[in-house]
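Example for tutorial group B:
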């Protein structure tokens, strides 16, 4: 993690088919998805706690528009869609930072294969725009 960016290594989120459940005719976040969001929050807080610039990072991320970059490392190229884990990951990170996810104005997604250790790499950074 740098003084301007948040870097995280996280487990692969549940597939979109496992993120929601229907209860009494209503779509709700599944237990698996809720657990994932909680885990992401723990990873984020731990990463911030280890960073000597944590207050500066937190302040920059709370006061600027944001750029989110995610590298998905899946077991197989064919089993998962690239964008299926975006929303839950974005929501989990922003909730943990107490930032509205509508502040994310640019997203970069990458799909890679890591058969032995599927995971995701995330960078959340301020969006620097000279035109505003």
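The residue assignment follows.
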């Amino acid at each position: 993690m740098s003084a301007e960016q948040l870097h995280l290594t996280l487990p692969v989120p549940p597939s979109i088919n496992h993120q929601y459940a229907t209860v009494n005719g209503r779509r709700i976040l599944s237990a698996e998805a809720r657990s994932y969001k909680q885990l992401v929050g723990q990873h984020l807080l731990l990463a911030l706690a280890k960073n000597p610039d944590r207050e500066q990072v937190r302040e920059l991320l709370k006061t600027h528009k944001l750029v989110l970059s995610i590298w998905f490392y899946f077991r197989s190229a064919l089993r998962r869609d690239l964008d299926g884990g975006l929303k839950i990951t974005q929501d989990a990170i922003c909730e943990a930072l107490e930032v509205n996810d509508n502040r994310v104005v640019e997203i970069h997604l990458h799909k890679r294969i890591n058969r032995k250790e599927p995971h995701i790499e995330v960078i959340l950074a301020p969006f620097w725009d000279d035109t505003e």
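The beta strands are 6-10, 20-23, 26-29, 66-74, 104-113, 119-126. Compare this with the pattern of hydrophobic and polar residues in the output above.
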